[in-house]
TrEMBL record:
UniProt KW Cytoplasm keyword: yes
Residues involved in Zn(2+) binding: C99, C102, C139, C142
Cofactor(s) needed: Zn(2+)
Name of the protein this chain belongs to: Ferric uptake regulation protein
GO terms classed as biological process: negative regulation of DNA-templated transcription; regulation of secondary metabolite biosynthetic process
One Pfam family named in its UniProt record: FUR
Gene3D superfamilies noted in UniProt: 3.30.1490.190, Winged helix-like DNA-binding domain superfamily/Winged helix DNA-binding domain
GO cellular component: cytosol
SUPFAM superfamilies named in the record: Winged helix' DNA-binding domain (SSF46785)
Transmembrane portions of the chain: none
Subunit (UniProt): Homodimer.
GO molecular function, one term: transcription cis-regulatory region binding
Record lineage: Bacteria, Pseudomonadati, Pseudomonadota, Gammaproteobacteria, Alteromonadales
Organism of provenance: Pseudoalteromonas rubra
Gene it is expressed from: fur
Length: 144
């Protein structure tokens, strides 16, 4: 799916949920959509400043909070970075394969991993509300 299709889909989700897809939110969304790996908030800020000279860290963080709340992005906790979710029209389990060499991030959706985690958690009286599993290593291109 190209960036224009993703933006159109995001606008539709916002309309359906009564949320405002402001120009700044759209710009941050587009910046993330153009990336293959995770991007830090300050890297996004530097790119945003090219078109929004008055942008501040709070500008980016507010946009990221909004995009996260609507499920448009995932936060990669281990690297403190963000990436676009291309499947934001549905709730799904998330597993991320993070290449420590090139930074590429591959998003997986394994229901069996999610199911196993939920079962193990339940055995300990724990109810999982959300999950993102991160695995670090080397991608296929870096292993060649």
């Amino acid at each position: 799916m190209n960036i224009e299709q993703l933006v159109s889909k995001a606008k539709q989700v916002c309309d359906n949920r009564g949320a405002r897809f402001t120009p700044i939110r759209e710009k941050v969304f587009r910046l993330l959509a153009a990336k293959q790996g995770g991007v830090g908030a300050y890297d996004l800020l530097e790119e945003l400043k090219l078109t929004e000279s008055g942008a501040k860290p709070a500008t980016v963080y507010r946009a990221l909070d909004f995009l996260s709340e609507l499920g448009f992005i995932h936060k990669i906790e281990s690297t403190n970075a963000f990436m676009l979710c291309h499947h934001f029209d549905c709730i799904h389990p998330v597993q991320l394969l993070i290449c420590d060499s090139c930074g590429h991030v591959q998003e997986l959706h394994s229901n069996s991993i999610s199911h196993e985690l939920n079962n193990l958690a339940a055995e300990h009286g724990f109810l999982v509300k959300a999950q993102t599993i991160e695995a670090h290593g080397r991608c296929g291109k870096c292993n060649e």
